[in-house]
Amino acid sequence: MIDFHLDVRSGVSPYQQLVQQVQRALRLGLLSVGDQLPTVKEVVAKLAINPNTVLKAYRELEHLGLVTPRPGLGTFVTHSLADDSLAAHEPLRRELLGWLDKAQRAGLDADSIEALFLTTFRKATEVTP
């Protein structure tokens, strides 16, 4: 089951953070078709947020065709975003963990690591005309 968290410093609305976390979990194969999302009540209790925020996120996921509510039962995954690259994830994750360890040993804090990664990622994925 997915374990939601919120980053109040991100500038991204809480409902959108929940949507993005489900999409990432689907892309990484952490959630599969048939899996149940936490109930609204469980998410509210864990994150101390308004139930309408969770409902809005779940409605957005439903609109995207990723989940469907089943009255009295909960909300269930109906579509996966994982693709054929899923097999490559684990070796790449191990390499990334090694890189993160090197960055921490070099004295970079979490914000610096994130900035370095995001800047490098954006530069590497830029499309040049």
UniProtKB/TrEMBL annotation:
CDD domains from the UniProt entry: WHTH_GntR (cd07377)
Keyword Thylakoid: no
Superkingdom, taxonomy of origin: Bacteria
Alphabetically ordered keywords of this record: DNA-binding, Transcription, Transcription regulation
Domain HTH gntR-type: 12-80
GO molecular function: DNA binding; DNA-binding transcription factor activity
PANTHER family cross-referenced by the UniProt entry: GNTR-FAMILY TRANSCRIPTIONAL REGULATOR, HTH-TYPE TRANSCRIPTIONAL REPRESSOR YTRA
Protein name: GntR family transcriptional regulator
